[in-house]
Amino acid sequence: MTIQHSYQCLVLLSALCAACLMGCATDNPAGTAADLPGARGQITRRAFGKTKEGTPVDLFTLRNTKGAEARICNYGGLVISLKVPDRNGKFGDVVLGYDMLDGYLKSSPYFGAIIGRYGNRIAKGKFTLNGKEYTLAINNGPNALHGGIKGFDKVVWTPKILATPDGPALELRYLSKDAEEGFPGNLSVIAVYTLTEDNGLKLDYTATTDKDTVVNLTQHSYFNLAGKGDNLHHEVMIKADKFTPVDSTLIPTGELRPVEGTPFDFRKSTAIGARINQDDEQLKFGKGYDHNWVINKPAGKLGIMARVYEPTSGRVLEVLSTEPGLQFYTGNFLDGTITGKGGWVYQFRNAFCMEPQHYPDSPNHPNFPSVVLKPGQVYKHTLIYRFSVQP
Ligand code: BGC
C-alpha cells in the first residue's frame, strides 16, 4: 500500500467514524446555542428515528441556564418531555407521551403536538368561504378534528436551531399545500419554540397564505404537574366570564354562556375534581371538561388565560396567549389503553390540556371572532406555558 493509499484509507475511515458518530450519537452538541453571541442556554440535537415513509426525524433538547429542559421533535413539533422544578427544586417531567418515536407514529391522542391547520372541531367537516363550500375529512364522530387525518401533528417540519437572548430556540417550518386535508391555499407556517429563563416554554406562530383560508393553530401538551396520578386535585383558575356550550358531538351551539352559577366558573381557583362529576348536561357531553372558555382580555393581546396549581409538588403552570379562547380538556378520553413514558398506564383524567386558540367551529359561526386569513395578511399567535412554584 502506497503512502497515498493509506492516507486515502485514513480519510475514509475518519469519514465513516464521523458519520457513525452523527448517526448513532446521543446528544450531538453541534448547534449549541450557548456558543452564539448574546444567546443563553443550550440546544443539542440527536437522531430520534424515522417516519413510516423513512424520513429521518431529530430530537432537540433545549436547556435554559436554570436547569429546565424541553425535548422537542421535528415530527409534529411534539413536546416529548418538559422538566421543571418542584417546590424542593427537584426536576420532573410534567407532560405525557411516549419514550420513543414509534409510539407517536402508531397512535397518539395528540400528545405534545402542534395542531393545525384548524385546532378542534369543524361541524360535519364542512365550511363555506367566499361562497364556496369546502369538505374536510371526518375523523371524530360526524366532525373534523385537529386538521384532519394527517394534520400538522403528523408531518415532518424543517428544523433550525436559533440563538436568542431569551433562551434556546427551535424554529420549525412547514408548507401546507393548497387543498391539503381539504383546506384552500398554500399555507406557510413557522413555529418557534423558546425555553425562556423564567421557565416558560414559548411558542410563536406566524403563517401566510396565497388564497383565502381558515387557520387556528394551537399546542396539545397533556400536563400532569405531579408527574403521576390523576388530575383531579390540580387547582385551576381560568380568566373567563363565559364559555361556549356544545351539542352532544362537542360542536359549539353558538351561545356565549355566563359561567356564573355553573361548574364552568373557574374565576376563583378550584380543584378540577370539585364539580367534574356534577349532574350537568355540558359535563356529560364532554365526559368532563372539554370546552372552550371565552377569555377576558383584549383580542390579540398577550395575557394570562389560566393558572394551575398542584399542591403536592407545589408546581404552578400559567398559560398565556394572544388568542381569544382556551380549550380546557381534562383527558376524558384517556382510558388505560395507552402505556406511556416509563411504563405509566394513562388512565381516565390522568392529565389535562390547555389549548389557547380561536373558538371551535368558528368558520360556521359568524358571531365568533374570525379565523379567515387572506393573502398579504400575517397570522400571528404567541402562547406560553410558564412554570413556577408556590410554597
Ligand atoms: C378535544 C378533545 C379531544 C382531544 C384529543 C381536545 O382538543 O377537545 O375532545 O378528545 O383534543 O383528541
Briefly summarize what is shown.
By secondary structure, the chain is mainly beta.
Please give a structural write-up.
- The protein has 391 residues and is mainly beta.
- It has helices spanning 3-24, 101-106, 281-286, and strands spanning 42-50, 56-63, 69-73, 79-85, 91-93, 113-115, 121-122, 126-129, 132-135, 144-145, 158-162, 169-176, 187-195, 200-209, 213-214, 218-220, 235-238, 240-244, 257-258, 270-271, 290-295, 303-309, 315-321, 325-329, 338-339, 345-346, 353-357, 372-373, 379-389.
- The strands form eight sheets. It has a nine-stranded antiparallel sheet with strand order 11-12-13-14-29-23-22-17-20, with no helix packed on it. A five-stranded antiparallel sheet has the order 1-2-3-4-5.
- 45% of the residues are buried.
- The structure holds beta-D-glucopyranose.
Mean of the pLDDT scores?
Answer: 92
Bound molecules: beta-D-glucopyranose
Helix content bin: under 10%
Number of helices: 3
Q: Unreliable runs, pLDDT <50, ≥5 residues?
A: 1-34
N/C terminus separation? 72 Å
- How much beta, percentage-wise? 35-45%
Largest sheet: 9 strands, antiparallel
Please describe the structure with a list of short key phrases separated by commas or semicolons.
9-stranded antiparallel sheet, mainly beta, 5-stranded antiparallel sheet, globular, 3 helices, binds beta-D-glucopyranose, disordered N terminus, single chain
